[in-house]
Design goal:
Blueprint: H1 2-21, H2 24-27, H3 30-50, H4 68-81, H5 83-87, H6 91-95, E1 97-104, E2 107-111, H7 112-136, H8 146-151
Antiparallel strand pairs: 1-2
Helix pairs in contact: 1-4, 1-7, 3-4, 3-7
């Protein structure tokens, strides 16, 4: 199930980006842009937390990306760099306990599979917020629920160019 959630997450992100890019008002909307960055930043943070933490985590801001295409490349880059590694985690690796460093008082220790499930659910939550805003701006949110992904035959992600 975790592999399905991770694959769905990429597909849903790519479809989400495609719908946003079809609505010029959404492309320039600060709330959508901030959430798109937040989604990508948190995905990278969880991949870092479950991986090798020898290198420090790089925090970025939405303003660090000159235009929407740079932010989209940042979002897609997570999947290029991290998804193959995450999909190959063994059951023992998924059961490994780790401390989530941004929870400190009290500390949070969870399993790798729990951390990655949280990452997928967090992304879904913010895509839902963006879908509401997209509709307010005259756009059409895509049907990207997990069950829709199952229904469509678990398609691979196709990032808009």
């Amino acid at each position: 199930m975790l592999q399905d959630l991770l694959r769905h997450q990429e597909w849903a992100d790519a479809e989400h980006w495609r719908a946003i890019e079809c609505c010029s008002a959404a492309v320039g909307d600060p709330a959508i842009r901030t959430r798109l960055h937040h989604i990508a930043q948190v995905q990278r943070a969880f991949a870092w937390a479950v991986g090798d933490q020898r290198e420090p985590f790089t925090i970025t801001r939405a303003e660090d990306f000159a235009d929407p295409s740079a932010l989209k490349s940042y979002a897609a880059g997570y999947y290029e760099r991290s998804l193959p590694r995450l999909l190959q985690l063994t059951p023992d690796q998924q059961a490994r306990r780790l401390t989530i460093p941004w929870f400190q008082n009290p500390p949070l220790e969870i399993r790798v599979d729990e951390a990655l499930t949280q990452c997928a659910m967090h992304s879904h939550y913010h895509r839902g917020q963006n879908a509401t805003r997209l509709r307010e701006l005259g756009g059409e949110p895509p049907l990207i629920d997990l069950i829709a992904w199952f229904w469509k035959g678990r398609p691979s992600a196709s990032w808009p160019s």
